[in-house]
Amino acid sequence: MNLVKTISENLDFKKLSALFDEYLVDIDGDEREFFAFYNNVTLENVLVIYENEEAVGCGGFKKYDNTTAEIKRMFVHPNHRNKGIARLILNELEIWAKEKGFSSYILETSPKLTSAIALYEKSGYHLIPNYGQYIGVENSICMKKDS
């Protein structure tokens, strides 16, 4: 496995993000345009994981406030799941964010993504009230971890 730090303009990140958006169509349903608006943002801190030179997973973060990084676009290609790739991405994003001065991490996910929620809980995240644009959105849950 090879992990590359990049930005959201990276072509492999864009391809994985497009696959993620296709995957979310059924999950987000009528709210997909709402989520797409907030998920398809420019990110200066993106990781892409390669296995045998194939991009198999990605994730990124952006500044939420002076001490908090928001984890975005966590995705592992379905053919490469259950190999610990998502955990590796999340851990590396947290290390990178900490190096940039952040001391806590937040994220939003769908209550339907139970395996993602399980990963976040095992990684020390806990449920918090929905923040920002997710306040009042029933198809969202928000989580936080302090380092």
Task: Walk me through this protein's architecture.
- With 147 residues, the protein is an alpha+beta fold.
- The protein has one domain (2-105): Aminopeptidase (3-Layer(aba) Sandwich), CATH 3.40.630.
- 34% of the residues lie in helices and 31% in strands.
- It contains 4 helices and 7 strands.
- The protein has a 7-stranded mixed beta sheet with strand order 1-2-3-4-5-7-6, sandwiched between helices.
- Strand 2 and strand 3 (54-63) form a beta hairpin.
- It starts with a strand and ends with a strand.
- The relative contact order is 0.16.
- The mean pLDDT is 91.
Kindly identify the CATH topology: Aminopeptidase
What is the molecular shape?
globular
What gyration radius follows from the Cα positions, in whole Å? Answer: 14 Å
Order of helices and strands: EHHEEEHEHEE
- CATH architecture field: 3-Layer(aba) Sandwich
The total tally of domains equals 1
InterPro entries: Acyl_CoA_acyltransferase, GNAT_dom, NAT_camello-type
Keywords: Transferase
Pfam families: Acetyltransf_1 (PF00583)
Protein name: GNAT family N-acetyltransferase
